[in-house]
């Protein structure tokens, strides 16, 4: 199945932590224009989303035809939608185009593959736009890794962090201790900054190491990804302030979606373990 992605920043297609919206419109076989029913659906969507913002558009074909002909058809389908939208809905300023190549469908003639999907955010989500896009990119990277928790490796915690990172494989996940924030905010407390200093030293000494900083929150079942992302970003910013190159640092927030203990927690210790910051080494 040929897919052409119109997108911002970089090529990615992954489930994101924030709830961006999506809508799909379906084409007849080998057609680059929508039939009347789908045109009506598109017009209704446009009229209901004049204040939304388009993040990405993906065009698809079924498995019929050659790779090149499917690529051309996908582009034509996306182009048809862009012309129909006719700037009635705004796009991000860095909206670009790219071809992702061919992906096989299970069926030769699959009507559900003959579509264009629009990913977008509503006006009330605009203040989360940075985190939505960031999570797109970072979650795609995480999906490619075989992650090992440091606790599973049974190494002595008495070893220096430098030595530990020599003994652990790439994609090892570390839970940090004592990374504390002001209540319901992303402001790092002084004790949290002190506890990050060993990572500052490591990153200065081992300049090939690249990491993803992962934020989690506790206590509430709602998916407050924004707070956890802001906290992870605060750790990233602190490391940058200490002279670590931003190119080596990424971040993501999981809200309360990946707790170590069930929510609501039974005690303060469980809440503390859920309200954590982790570092995932992605290159070394």
From TrEMBL:
All copies of the OmpA-like domain together span 168-284
Does this UniProt record's set of keywords contain Membrane? yes
Q: By its UniProt entry, which Gene3D superfamilies does this protein fall under?
A: OmpA-like domain (3.30.1330.60)
Q: Which InterPro entries match?
A: Bact_OuterMem_StrucFunc (IPR050330), OmpA-like (IPR006665), OmpA-like_sf (IPR036737)
Q: Name one GO cellular component term.
A: membrane
Query: What keywords were assigned to this record?
Result: Membrane
Q: Which domain of life is it from?
A: Bacteria
UniProt name for this protein = OmpA-like domain-containing protein
């Amino acid at each position: 199945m040929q897919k052409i992605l119109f997108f911002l920043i970089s090529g990615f297609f992954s489930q994101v932590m924030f709830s961006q919206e999506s809508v799909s419109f379906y084409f007849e076989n080998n057609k680059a224009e929508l039939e009347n029913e789908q045109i009506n659906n598109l017009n209704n969507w446009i009229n209901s989303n004049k204040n939304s913002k388009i993040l990405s558009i993906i065009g698809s074909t079924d498995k019929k035809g050659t790779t090149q002909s499917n690529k051309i058809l996908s582009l034509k389908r996306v182009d048809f939608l862009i012309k129909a939208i006719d700037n009635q809905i705004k796009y991000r300023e860095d909206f670009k185009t790219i071809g992702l190549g061919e992906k096989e469908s299970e069926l030769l003639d699959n009507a559900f593959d003959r579509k264009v999907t629009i990913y977008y955010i509503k006006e009330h989500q605009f203040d989360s736009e940075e985190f939505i896009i960031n999570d797109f990119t970072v979650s795609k990277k995480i999906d490619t890794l075989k992650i090992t928790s440091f606790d599973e490796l049974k190494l002595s915690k008495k070893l220096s962090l430098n030595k530990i990172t020599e003994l652990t494989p790439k994609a090892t996940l570390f839970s940090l201790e004592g990374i504390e924030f002001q209540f319901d905010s992303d402001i790092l407390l002084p004790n949290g900054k002190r506890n990050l200093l060993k990572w500052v030293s490591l990153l200065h000494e081992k300049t090939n190491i690249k990491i993803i900083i992962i934020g989690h929150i506790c206590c509430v079942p709602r998916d407050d990804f924004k707070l956890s992302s802001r906290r992870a970003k605060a750790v990233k910013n602190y490391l940058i302030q200490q002279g670590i190159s931003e190119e080596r640092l990424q971040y993501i927030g999981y809200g309360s979606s990946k707790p170590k203990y069930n929510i609501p927690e039974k005690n303060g210790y469980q809440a503390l373990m859920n309200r954590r910051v982790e570092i995932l080494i992605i290159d070394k």
